[in-house]
Amino acid sequence: MRAAAGATTTADAWNFVEGGSGGEHTMRENGLAFDRVRLLPRVAVDVAGRTARTRLLGLPVPVPLAVAPMAYQTWLHPDGEVATAAAAAAAGVPFVVSMMASRTVEDIAATGAATVMQLYWLRDRGLFRELIGRAEAAGCAALMLTVDVPLLGRRLRDMRGGLVRPATVVAANLGGAGGGAGAGRAGRSEVALHTKVLFDPSLSWADVAWVRSVTRLPLVLKGILDPDDAALAVDAGADAVVVSNHGGRQLDGAVATATALPAVVDAIAGRCEVLVDSGIRGGVDVLKALALGAAGVLVGRPLLWGLAAGGAPGVTRVFDLISEELHEAMALAGCPDVDSARRLRTSVAGGGC
Which amino acids are annotated catalytic? Predict the structure, then answer.
């Protein structure tokens, strides 16, 4: 699916999807860290009637995954987020709407997908409040505040190519802020310049508590890696946290999420739900995330590959592959359900149990 997507997208769009920050060390390490996790399968367990059904972000799901928030999806396919959300609705999994989506939250919710609205901390507090109100009115199940982007990471692929969005690829939830005009310039990313104007780097825990106070929706904090921050997130009223390094697109050199996850789970101590993203590439990775303590995962780039390669049917194919792989891995690991998957022992390649 990745190969098919790469053959159908423009160089700018492909670099935007595939690129990480700096030397892309953290982006690569995300996958390698999941690769190093080893599972200790259980045997003589009846897995004939196994199920991956559970609850995620308060919603019943057939498999413990949701669609990660990803911007500007019409860059990859004309239907963009509406196609991805339609596939998510068919699969029965939640769709997290990026604040920078190229289709509105209202259009995305109209697909029937269970939606969660992702937000960045904006300089314009009025617009921030307006987006919360729109999310509530659209029937979103939760808000997801991304807390690891005081400014955009130094994404060298975008800068070297002079990345400019096409004029048709807009931030639809922000009143249709348009794409870049004219040609790009080496050393400059139009996307980075756009977000620098919008995002406020002053976000504090007091601000997080304020966000908690102005909405009735559950609040998810995305971008947690340090266990101390996980504890502070609970104190600020978070109903869930996402262990995330933004897919390796923020601080290059940050710890991989599979490495950070167990300590965050320990710090949370069951007080709120813990999810994880960055580096999930198949059903075995989902099982590993569960064994490391996550309630579920957010899947990102693989779904964009499916979208670029084949629209909604391409996304559906990715969902189907991950689900099939997860069910097979659960059977082979002796897990009849998600709770038993969370009780699996793990080791790290080269280390002990």
Answer: 246
